[in-house]
Structure formats: structure tokens, C-alpha cells
Amino acid sequence: MSSDSKESKAIQSLKVPKMIPEEKSPCRPADATRSKQGATKQKRLKDISYTKFIAESVSLIRYCTRFSTSPIQDNSESVLEIKKENLGNFWIRLQAVYDAIVESDESDLPENFKSSAYSKYENCLDQYEETRAMISDQLKLIKAIEPTPQTRVELPQVQNQEASSGIHLKVPAWDTEIFHGGYEQWPSFRDMFTAVYINHPKLSNAQKLHHLRYKTKGQAGVLVKQFALNDENFNYAWEALKARYENERILVDKQVTILMNLPKIQKETSEEFIKLQSIVSNCLSVLATKNIPTDNWDPILVNICTSALPEKSLLLWEQSLSSRRKCLTWQQMNDFLTTQYEIAERVDKKMVRTKNVQHDLNRSFIRPQASNNNNLNRSFKRSHPNKINKRHANCVKEGTG
Predict the structure, then answer these.
(1) Where does this protein have compositionally biased stretches of type Basic and acidic residues (predicted)?
(2) Domain spans of the chain?
(3) Number of Cα atoms under 13 Å in the Cβ half of residue 76
(4) 81-84 long-range CB contacts below 8 Å, 24 or more apart?
(5) Residue 254: exposure state from Cβ atoms within 10 A (0-12, 13-18, ≥19)
(6) 3-state secondary structure 215-259
(7) pLDDT band, residue 183 (cuts 50/70/90)
(8) Which 3 state secondary structure label does DSSP give 157?
(9) Each residue of 89-143: pLDDT tens digit?
């Protein structure tokens, strides 16, 4: 036997036997369709769950915001009871949707949705608790005030209603801003709250404390909410605020820091000039209330104001001076800023009018070309109907010939 034949036999002996394919289990089209429909339905339910959570959380926050911004005098006892019930219903729906999200698998939800839903839930919980406390405080305030006995005096109908209710929650149309606990905000808040609420002739101390709760947030709000809602505690709460924020040293240091760090004017507009002027004037006013003499601060004030001016305004300032050898006063700088503000305001208005006129001109001159050609063709046909008919007849003859 030759070597070639031996080699071929060896190769044949090394051949791998063919694998017998396994029989695949038959898959019926109906089963595949049902599986696909089930997956689609499950995905739709998951999408609905987190979409509903977002919608419910937004609805709750809107309801709480609307209540906190509504006038107190619009809320009678019956209205407050209804609002309290509505708030509870909003929270029940939100809680149910959130529980469903917590129990679901992470893979069934969008990426990082559980963590974002948790932070959203915490925010809604804070809003819910704060609003519920507001409603309870208002209900307690209304129920605590008993009608005072009145002498038998004939009064107009409106006055009789007001006297019988014993509730005087209306305040002047102008109101105070919310105090968040800033030392620089305290003097203006204190004076305004005193004028609007403390000096109001028909507000009881409990009602004043209720308004004080509404008008304080942050650290100041926490301080006020420590006192229960009654007539005796208003004076304690007010004195606590005064003791906390009437810190003369901190207030003065704050004003000096503001003056020494004036923001530089980036663009020479009327808003920028009046902002710089207002900051300096407000700081001087606060310092004056603390009996800090600023009469001899002119060189300092002029120096820090010139540092905040841009190049062009600084040049105008130097040109406005009658003498460059004498010490300058704050009054000179104040007058210069007023002049620059007035000039910039007029220029800004003129530029706006010019832009509006130019825009109107552009709109009137720009017309589509096709539209103009169509208008010319229509006018030509109306003025020369015979020429159009003759041309049409000649074209027909040439075509038939």
C-alpha cells in the first residue's frame, strides 16, 4: 500500500462526524402575539405609573402654592374645611402612586427615576405639611375669636356684620415683603410690618402673629413658629425677632462690605446707573439710622464709585468736573449718576423706537417676488384683454398647422 493511500485513510478516520440538529419546539403565531401584547401592555402600565406620579406631584404643589398666596380674608371657616379635605385627597392620590413606584423594579422604570421620585416626594411632603399647618392655624384663629358683646347701637349693615364676626383680617392693599432672615432686610421689614400690621387698629395680637408667620420664612420663620398662636405670644415672637436681627455691629459691617464691593457697571444702561446709585444711597441711609456719621466720607464714596464706572463714563465724569484740584463730594457723584441715568434712559427709548420703525419699514418693503409678478400679470390681463385673446388664437393655429 502506497503512502498516499495510507494518508487518505488516516484523514478519513479523523473527520468529525456531523452533529444531528436538535428539533426546535414549534412556536405558534398566537403565542408570540400574546407574548408581545403582554409586554406592550406591561410597558404601557409602567409609563402610566410614573407619568401619573409626575402629574399628581405637580397638582399638589400648585394647590399648596395657590393657597399660600391667597388672601387670608377670603378664607372663611367652611372654605378652610373644604380646602383641608381637598388637600388630604391630593396627598392620598400622590401617596398611592408613589407606593406603586417604590414597589416596582428599577428595570421597569426610566433611568434614575426612583431617586428623582424620592426627592420629588420629599418636596411634596414638605409642601403638604406646611400648607396643612397653615390651614389649621387659620381655623384655630377663627375659632378662638369669640364675638364680643356689643351695645345696642344702630349701625349700618356692613358694620354690624363686621362687629358680629369679631374677625378683622383685612389689611391695606399695599403689603410687606417676606422676611427670610437677612440682617440687611430687617430694618425695612420691621418698619413696614409695624406700619401695616402692628399699627392696624382692628387686628388682635393673635391675628398679628398669624400674619407674622406668613411673612417670615427660613430661619426667621422657624423662630416665629416656636410660639403658639394666641394673643400673648405675639409680643414674645416680635421681641425674639428683634433680639435676633437687631444686631448693630453685624448690620453696620454688612453695609460697609456692600460699599467696598460695589459691582462694576458692565453696560452703560439706565438700569446699571440707577442700580449703582441706589446701592450707595441705601447703605448710607441704613448707616444713618444706626447713628454712624458719614458726612466726611466723600473722598471714600467718590473713589469706590469711580472704580465701578466703565472707561467711557469715567472719561465723562472727569470732563464734568469744574476743578481737578479740589476734593470731590458725594453730591457731585450723585448728580453725575443721575445725569447719566437720565441720558441713558432717553437714548434707550430712542433706540427702541428706531428699531421698531426700521422693523416696520422692512416689513412693508419686503414682498415675495412671485406675488408681485402675479399681480402684474393680473393687471396686464385686465387692461389688455384683446391682446391676450389674439396671442392665444395664434398659438392654437400654429399648433394645428
Answers:
(1) 20-34
(2) 41-144, 173-246, 267-365
(3) 3
(4) 81/139, 83/135, 84/132, 84/135, 84/136, 84/139
(5) middle
(6) CECHHHHHHHCCCCCCCCHHHHHHHHHHHHHCCHHHHHHHHHHHH
(7) confident
(8) helix
(9) 888 988 888 888 777 777 666 667 777 788 888 889 988 888 888 888 777 766 6
